[in-house]
Amino acid sequence: MIGRLFTRLKGTMLVAAHLPQQxxxxxxxxxxxxxxxxxRVRQIVRYAAETVPVYRDFFASHxxxxxxxxxxxxxxxxxxISKEVVRSQPERFVSTSRWGREAVPFRxxxxxxxxxxxxxxKRSILLDSAFNExxxxxxxxxxxxxx
Length: 147
Description:
Blueprint: H1 2-24, H2 30-51, H3 53-62, H4 83-88, H5 98-101, E1 104-107, E2 117-120, H6 122-143
Antiparallel strand pairs: 1-2
Helix pairs in contact: 1-6, 2-3
């Protein structure tokens, strides 16, 4: 009982801590938005190159230094990955980090093709709540209501 309560409190605190940042994002100047975007790109690429088997192997086999991917435009250096590859080897797209080991599998409905399993770490699920709250704040500001 105490463990579940602590887990819920921790999750609520994580969402609450990220809400102020999410609320201000839609109103930042373009150069600040691009700087935040590109910093996130660098973090994601570094994390993937270090902990996700398919990306770790890709960077190593193609001799690409993940630090060379610095902006969203640099992502064009990376190949698109087909749904078939993801569907056939879903475990190779799961991080070997603690977050990846605790990831929650979600199965798509398969409306456009076969159903597919995608893993989300618990932290990203909670942070998505903060992101969704940002959209509600924009609606509230523009329309005076929450959709």
